[in-house]
Design a protein that fits this description.
The protein is of the alpha+beta class. It is built from 6 helices and 8 strands, in the order αααβββαββαβββα. The strands form 2 sheets. Strands 1-2-4-5-8-7 form a 6-stranded antiparallel β-sheet. β7 and β8 form a beta hairpin. The radius of gyration is 60 Å and the shape is elongated.
């Protein structure tokens, strides 16, 4: 091979004349076009490959969620769907509340009946209202010598059955006066025995004072008795004008009966109050 001017190679067809520059340029352009198409083809192939991966990923996701797009009749039955576990709530054993305390248990025995007890706790205030009547309170007192506050057969009954205290209070309205006396024993049995032995022979001694003159010392008066728990209570009522009481003296009967009812309520209230306090203390 020989080289012409400028060092350009000559082929076998070269005749030593000037090269055909136009043919050379066309051949170079053809080669350049071929290289561009090869590069474009490679890029398209790469793009298609990436697109296939993306499409596959979407198909895979749709395939996993395929059940969500199925008609209801093609979905699994309720029995085939696992249910969420339920944690049972706390359970409590059935308990039975203790029976309420009996107020009578407290007024039946000195062992439980420990609330303050005197004329002020049983007969507080200066008046007593029962129904439409207002009674004025006179003198009141208490003593451990029960027989000293009784007369006749009652004094012996109280002493024989170990009376521990006698509480007295007098109430008046007009010329009528009634003394109520409460004999206290240690047990209900002792009180019941004393009440049974009394038989209305003798009486609680009337209590004058605080503006009330003496009464029921030498005149005819009305006596009553009753018992509840460890208590026996008596009334002795008459007129303060020195006359004998009769069945026509309606205020005497009303005042005496009201005092009996009030005394019973006060004793019952003692039991209720102490039973409630014991239940609260637990």
């Amino acid at each position: 091979m020989s080289f012409g001017q400028g060092g350009a190679p000559w082929g076998p067809e070269d005749n030593g004349s000037t090269p055909d520059w136009a043919a050379l340029a066309e051949a170079s352009e053809a080669r350049a076009r071929k290289r561009r198409w090869m590069m474009i083809g490679g890029a398209v192939a790469a793009t298609l490959a990436v697109g296939s991966l993306v499409a596959w990923g979407i198909v895979s996701a749709n395939k996993d969620n395929e059940a969500g797009n199925k008609p209801a009749e093609q979905l699994p039955s309720t029995a085939d769907i696992p249910s969420e576990g339920k944690t049972p709530g706390p359970s409590f054993e059935a308990t039975t509340p203790p029976p309420p305390l009996d107020p009578n248990d407290f007024i039946n025995s000195a062992d439980k009946d420990r609330a303050p007890l005197n004329e002020d706790t049983l007969y507080p205030g200066k008046t007593l209202t029962m129904g439409g009547n207002v009674y004025k309170k006179g003198a009141s007192t208490h003593t451990k010598d029960c027989s000293s506050a009784a007369q006749g057969a009652l004094a012996g009954v109280l002493k024989k059955n170990d009376c521990t205290q006698m509480i007295r209070a007098t109430y008046t309205k007009g010329d009528t006066a009634v003394t109520v006396g409460v004999a206290v024993f240690d047990t209900k049995a002792e009180a019941a025995k004393a009440a049974g032995q009394y038989k209305l022979r003798g009486a609680v001694v009337s209590l004058p004072g605080s503006g009330v003159p003496a009464f029921c010392r030498t005149t005819v008066c009305r006596q009553t008795s009753n018992s509840v728990g460890r208590y026996v209570y008596f009334t002795n009522g008459g007129l303060t004008n020195g006359k004998d009481a009769t069945k026509k003296d309606t205020m005497l009967f009303t005042l005496g009966d009201d005092l009996r009812a009030f005394t019973f309520q006060q004793i019952q209230r003692r039991g209720q109050t102490q039973a409630s306090a014991a239940a609260t203390a637990g």
